# Entry
Amino acid sequence: MGDRQGRIDFRDYPQPIIEVADVEALDFATGLVDPEISGCSARWGLHTELRELGPSVLFELLVALGLAITSTAPRAARVAGRHTIDYSRFQPGILERAGRCILNWPQGFDALADAVRMSSGARAAAFGVQKELGPLLALVHNKNLPHMLRCQINVLIKENMRSCPDALQLVRHPVHRPNQDMMSVQQAAAKYRVARKSLSALAARKIIASIRPAGRGRMPRLVSDAEVARIVQQQDLSVSNSEVAVRLGIQRVFVSELGSCGLLTPVGKPYLASKGKEFFDRRSLDLLESRCREIALEGAPPEGGVSISLAARKLAMQFANPWPEITTNLLAGRLRVWFVERRSLMSSLVIENVNELAALGVKGMPIAKGADVPLTVTDAAALIGTDVVKLAQLVVRGFLPRGHNREDLRRFIGDYMFTSEIRRVAERRGLKLRWQEVPKLLRANGVHPAAALIGERGFVWPRRDVLAALDELCLTAA
# Structure
């Protein structure tokens, strides 16, 4: 018996001759369904990754590549079902391109990927592999292809994304970039524990390198990992004047002069800092603390010893900063100090008695008139040589306005004096008085306090009258 003859002879239905530029590629495509051709993999010298695949699998790959080439869907990463495929799209030119892709594998797939990327503008995705290679990405999810082949295609897609000439200028997932330096703002914020809004603002101001796709809506932004790390390190190595004040146990308004005297190293404001106007190198603060601790004597402090913080408050200086002189004398070994662990450095350092700083002749540095540091209640009280309780009473009694500034404080000390200042002025003029003797002496000479802020304490004296009375007393004593 011979072969069964079909009822239809295709020779009775002549078709127009197909003309293509790449006859070899089209012959390969049609040969996959030609029962008279066997061993196509060996015959065509396919790449080792495809050589073990049979004609049926290669045909499925050919169809999948043809679908990717002809895809016009805005979201082309989905796999079309068999019943939805319009095979009329598979013109000879399409089979030719798909065949050449397989024959030149993997370079052929790379060339096809570059061609697919050229039509990325028609796809709905905003960025990334879905935007650039969406139709080819459908091959990775095509269950008609073996799992191993889909994995190989996925690797080829990643390699093509990384080798694209514009890879560094496009927003992509890190695995699709030639280097791992660029990451999304969300990833950088989580890695370095920084607010996303802060990183986005720095990128918008071009302080850190960033990439963002053009278009409307919320688009992701990539930022440089190395530059974010540098910004975060800058933040970690700086300390604000507020933190310096807390660690040292001094008023914030006195911190600036420590920098101008070289005791601390001023630095620029870190890009990630939201508060504060003055910043210092954290290492210089650590060094200052360690040097002060090393100077402390061993053993318990003497009975009656007081902290340097308390002794400094007793100086009651007005618009003068005693801390540069105090710290310089301390580091020079002119003060015998003991260390008792407390909240801040200067409250932990103990000296023998409260008058030791005055005995050193600490006069204080003038504070810059226009220092650009907002005043807290504690700062304002320190500037006029009092405490926050008396400062509040000065506001209540009308000596200072609410929301007072430096000029208001300067006007106050130009018109009034506290008892502590009167003692110092009298001592400079040769009159040694105890605190209790000052009110009696002044009243005896016709000078009365403008107010008693706390019971019979906290006297506020008119400066002009006090100075005139001291001049008369000095003349009488002479």
